[in-house]
């Protein structure tokens, strides 16, 4: 939390006024016990028992000691005693912010500013929450007020430029950064620091984003000697040259960049040639192969540019070198070439030629007579391994198993052979055999974390949850269950696979618990940016700060959250279809029972349920009291906000399953994610909720992604019944929905 705004006239006697200053000092130094003691000393004076600002500070101190209920009580009391104190409003906002009630905290800051409109500390706190909640217009206005109040402080103008950038007012942001840069301009170039170089690069990126490419080129050339991150400067200059049509100048810089990093594929793509660019690029790659013989990208690019016999010669050389060196990733290196059937056929022919040559050589030449000119003995092994991958790509799984078995027979200790054999079994949907094979690979190298992870993943896909936990426990914290440790470490792949396995095993509550933990992790990722709003501006890492904000805006586009949301929505949809009936009560629906016996059994079950609920409430109260006692033992440390416990039994019986599904899907509605299953579950959930506009929009996205999918035809039939239902919705939504329905009616599958 930030500090408290400086106190105004508290109307305290001299002695208590001195104590209050000391109270503020103890709070800032995090000596909470002493601060609480001083607050109680001030309030012990009968005339000051209801002093608002002291009560507010006492409450703030208690909140840091984990005593939230007492804290809120004291702060509200203080606020009630002195509604015209900006300190009370500020403190109330700080407590709300600590509990992540950002909108409520903003209201408190606004009320505090009504009393003291030019308070720097409160304005800073308000600006932080505005950017956190993406109130960009308010953030811009607040930052402007701060810059006007403290015009000599460069950081305020820097923050104002960032606010303008986020709001899209790029020309003004460039002007502000120009003034900011002038304020920081060193007298001598040797006095230039990294911070000043960041100002130049940020201003350059603003110009690029605004489309002012000539100005960007001039700016980058003028201040080149002040910048420490030369690669970023040169890359931006290349973009500006290309956008301005100056290809020759761009090429000169790209040659320099390629000399530094010959593996960057983007540099090759940006190169421009006057005629027949493919032929010229091919010649350039040949030159790069001579100057950078260890670089692989100049050897891979020609494979994409050539055809026929020329391609055959190049790919044979590439394959021979890779098999000779024993590169396990050789197939993945050229996998993209398989999109062209003619190239895939040539690759197959050349590998078989290498295989025949190796078989002939191994049968004719003994180890005693082999020379240095011969290929390594392991070449045959890696040829078998490559052919297994090649056959798997063609979905000829029987042949793939034959080749991988030959590789294992050649070298029984090669981990890669066993792991790829497991992958083949996975593609054949023989998941238990895949898991056993991967487990065998793991036994060959127990210290390899990657193989350990793959083994755990395959075991989970085979629903062998206990075996997976045993394997994964080798690299997790001792004395703690592997599943708990991996969830705490935000190991998302494990959480997703584990939730899927538990769902398949019918343990719906446990699966939902893991999915809710994933949701909480992503909420924490969003909340964690709060600490960086002030830090990044203070350290002048502006480009990274803007990138962070844009990343956070789309963080839930990550595949792990999307997969978790889809799975959670599917589970809740299944739960919503289970209608509670009297048969849910054990034995009550038995036809052999009389009405009197049924009534007795029902009363007995109700009493048992009431007793169980009472015991649960008592247990929760005892645990809460225990936790409260624990906090008191070490109350100089701030206590983290407690989250509601996730109980699998309770999660498996939600009161409103569709609303729970919406909780996962709602953050994704504003993001355009090309994921068919996501839009499928959005349609299913929201059409059941009666939110037809959202459902129709999801169907349109499904139609654009997979128009011939059977689910599209099914949803389209359901959608055509919406027309008579949307009449009761607001006119604006009705109009949009009707237009979408018209597009759905006219849709013809390809």
TrEMBL record:
Record keywords: Repeat, TPR repeat
SMART domains: TPR (SM00028)
Keyword Nucleus: no
Gene3D superfamilies referenced in this protein's UniProt entry, alphabetically: 1.25.40.1010, 1.25.40.1040
Biased composition range(s): Basic and acidic residues: 611-626, 642-652
The organism's place on the tree of life at top rank: Eukaryota
One matching Pfam family: NatA_aux_su
Coiled-coil portions: none
Listed Basic residues bias regions: 599-610
Region named Disordered: 579-652
An example Gene Ontology CC term for this record: NatA complex
Tagged with keyword Secreted: no
Protein name, entry field: N-alpha-acetyltransferase 16, NatA auxiliary subunit
């Amino acid at each position: 939390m930030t500090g408290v705004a400086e106190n105004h006239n508290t109307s305290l006697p001299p002695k208590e006024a001195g104590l209050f200053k000391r109270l503020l000092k103890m709070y800032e130094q995090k000596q909470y016990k002493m601060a609480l003691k001083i607050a109680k000393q001030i309030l012990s004076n009968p005339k000051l028992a209801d002093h608002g600002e002291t009560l507010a500070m006492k409450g703030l101190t208690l909140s840091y000691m984990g005593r939230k209920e007492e804290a809120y009580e004291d702060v509200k009391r203080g606020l009630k005693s002195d509604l015209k104190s900006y300190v009370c409003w500020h403190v109330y906002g700080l407590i709300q912010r600590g509990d992540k009630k950002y909108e409520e905290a903003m209201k408190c800051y606004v009320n505090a500013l009504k009393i003291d409109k030019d308070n720097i500390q409160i304005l800073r706190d308000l600006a932080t929450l505005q950017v956190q909640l993406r109130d960009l217009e308010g953030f811009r206005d607040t930052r402007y007020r701060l810059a006007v109040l403290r015009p000599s402080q460069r950081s305020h103008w820097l923050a104002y430029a960032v606010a303008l950038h986020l709001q899209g007012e790029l020309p003004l942001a460039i002007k502000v950064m120009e003034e900011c840069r002038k304020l920081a301009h060193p007298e001598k170039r040797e006095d230039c620091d990294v911070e000043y170089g960041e100002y130049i690069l940020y201003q350059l990126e603003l110009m690029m984003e605004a489309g002012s490419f000539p100005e960007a080129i001039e700016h980058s050339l003028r201040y080149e000697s002040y910048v420490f991150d030369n690669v970023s400067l040169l890359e931006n200059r290349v973009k500006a040259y290309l956008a301005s049509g100056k290809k020759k100048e761009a090429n000169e810089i790209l040659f320099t960049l390629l000399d530094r990093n010959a593996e960057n594929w983007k540099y090759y793509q940006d190169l421009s040639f006057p005629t027949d660019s493919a032929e010229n690029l091919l010649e350039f790659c040949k030159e790069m192969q001579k100057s950078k013989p260890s670089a692989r990208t100049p050897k891979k690019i020609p494979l994409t540019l050539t055809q026929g016999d020329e391609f055959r010669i190049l790919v044979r050389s590439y394959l021979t070198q890779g098999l000779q060196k024993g590169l396990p990733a050789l197939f993945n290196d050229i996998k993209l070439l398989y999109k062209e059937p003619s190239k895939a056929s040539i690759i197959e022919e050349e590998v078989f030629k290498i295989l025949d040559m190796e078989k002939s050589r191994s049968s004719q030449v003994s180890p005693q007579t082999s020379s240095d000119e011969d290929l390594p003995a392991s070449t045959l092994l890696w040829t078998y391994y490559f052919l297994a991958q090649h056959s798997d790509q063609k979905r000829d799984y029987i042949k793939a198993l034959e080749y991988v078995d030959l590789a294992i027979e050649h070298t029984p200790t090669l981990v890669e052979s066993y792991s790829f054999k497991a992958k083949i079994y996975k593609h054949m949907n023989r998941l238990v055999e895949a898991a056993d094979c991967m487990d065998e690979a793991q036994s060959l190298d127990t210290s390899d974390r990657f193989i350990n992870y793959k083994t755990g993943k395959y075991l989970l896909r085979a629903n062998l949850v206990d075996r997976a936990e045993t394997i994964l426990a080798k690299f997790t914290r001792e004395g703690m269950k592997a599943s708990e440790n991996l969830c705490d470490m935000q190991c998302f792949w494990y959480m997703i696979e584990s939730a899927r396995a538990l769902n398949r095993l019918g343990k719906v509550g446990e699966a939902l618990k893991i999915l809710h933990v994933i949701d909480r992790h992503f909420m924490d990722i969003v909340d964690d940016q709060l600490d960086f709003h002030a830090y990044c501006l203070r350290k002048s890492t502006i480009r990274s700060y803007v990138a962070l904000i844009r990343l956070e805006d789309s963080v839930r586009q990550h595949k792990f959250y999307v997969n978790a949301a889809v799975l959670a929505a599917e589970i809740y949809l299944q739960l919503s279809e289970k209608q509670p009936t009297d048969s849910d009560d054990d034995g009550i629906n038995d036809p052999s029972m009389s009405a009197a016996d049924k009534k007795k059994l029902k009363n007995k079950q109700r009493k048992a349920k009431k007793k169980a609920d009472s015991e649960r409430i008592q247990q929760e109260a005892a645990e809460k009291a225990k936790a409260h006692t624990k906090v008191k033992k070490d109350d100089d440390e701030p206590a983290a906000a407690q989250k509601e416990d996730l109980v699998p039994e309770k999660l498996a019986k939600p009161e409103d399953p569709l609303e729970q599904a919406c909780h996962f899907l709602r953050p994704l509605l504003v993001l355009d994610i090309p994921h068919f299953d996501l839009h499928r579950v959005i349609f299913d959930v929201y059409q059941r909720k009666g939110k037809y506009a959202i459902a129709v929009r999801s169907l349109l996205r499904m139609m654009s992604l997979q128009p011939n999918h059977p689910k599209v035809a099914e949803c389209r039939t359901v959608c055509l019944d919406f027309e008579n239902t949307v009449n009761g919705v607001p006119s604006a939504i009705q109009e949009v929905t009707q237009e979408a329905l018209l597009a759905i009616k006219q849709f013809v599958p390809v």
